[in-house]
Amino acid sequence: MLLPMFGSSLGRWRIGSLLGFPVEISWSFLLLLAVAMLAFGGMTAVFVTLLAFGSVLLHELGHAVVARTLGVRVSSIELGFFGGAAKMVELPRSANHEIAIAIAGPAVSLMLSGLGFGLGAVTGVALLSLIGWINLVIAGFNLLPALPMDGGRILRALLTRRMDYVRATDSAVKVARVFAIGFAVVGLFFSAFQLLVLAPVLWMMGTQERWMARALAERYIRTAGGYAQRSAGRGGAEVEVLPRGAWEVRGRGPRRPVVASPVHLERRSGLAASYRGRSLGRGGRVVAGRAGAADRGP
Ligand SMILES: [Zn+2]
After folding, report:
1. What does the alpha-carbon distance between residue 185 and residue 195 come to, in Å, rounded to a whole number?
2. Which residue, among 106, 111, 107, 71, has the nearest Cα to 91 in the 3D structure?
3. Distance from Cα 62 to the centre of ligand 1, integer Å
4. How does pLDDT run across 30-74, given as a tens digit for each residue?
5. Long-range contacts of residues 68-73, Cβ cutoff 8 Å, at least 24 apart
6. Highest mean pLDDT: which of 5-19, 99-113, 262-276?
7. Catalytic residue positions?
8. How far is ligand 1, taken at its centre, from the CA of residue 109, in Å?
9. Burial of residue 282 (number of CB atoms within 10 Å: 0-12, 13-18, 19+)
10. What is the pTM of this model?
C-alpha cells in the first residue's frame, strides 16, 4: 500500500532503517500481534505474523526504492494492523510514474512468491512454500483496484488520462466502496475478523482520498498565485497555469493567466507538475508548454 502522508508521528516508533528509509511500527501493529497470539494460539501465530510482516516490509521497500528513483520523497515505511505503507511526502510527477511506483510493491511480492514456491518445491521445506503463499496473498490483495491500495492507485492514474484528478479519484473511490461492501459481506458469512474490520476502514480511507484530492487541487490554486508571472507568449516555453476563476477570486492584477516555468511548478506545487497537461477538476487546469522549458530556472 502507498500512502501520501502529512500527519504527526503520534503512536509510532522507529525500529530501524532499511536502504536509507526509516522503518516505523504503529501501536496497531502491536495490537495485531496480541490478537494473533490470542486468536490463533501462541507463538506459532506470532511467528507467521512476523513472517508476513517481513514480506510486507520488502513489498513496501519495492515502492520506496522506485519512488526515490523517480524523485518522490518517502518519509518512512510504516507497519500497522492492516499491513504496511510507504509514506510519500510528495506526489509522483506523472500518472506513469504513479503506476510504476504502485506496481513495484506487488512485483516484489510476486518475485518472493515465485522464489518461495520454487525453493519450497526443490528443498521440500514447508516454511519456504508458506513464504510463497504469504507473498502471493499480499500481491493479490494489493492489486485489487480499491483505492488506497496499489491496484486502486493504478486505476486512478489510468482514469486521469480520460478525466481530471478529482473525478478520477471519485471514480476510483466508488470502485473501492464496492470492495468495502464485498469485504463486509464475505467477512460476515465466513466470520473473517480482519475483513470485517477492514471494510469500514476502507470506506473511511476512500473519504480521506476524496478529501485529499480536493485539498491538493485547492492548494494548487493558492500556490499558483505565488508564481512569477511571465508573459504567456515569450518563447512559448512556459507552462501556463489557468486556475478556473482564480483571477476573479484574487481581485488584483491584470486578468490574465498565471504563467510559471515547470521548474517553479515542481518546486512550488507537486500537484501541478504531477499532472502537467491535465485538468485538475475544481482546481483548474495545467497547460503544458514546450519541452525543454524545465532547465530555464525560476
Ligand atoms: Zn503496496
Report:
1. 9
2. 71
3. 8
4. 777 777 777 767 777 778 878 888 999 999 999 999 999 988 888
5. 68/20, 70/97, 70/100, 70/101, 72/97, 72/101
6. 99-113
7. 60
8. 9
9. middle
10. 0.69
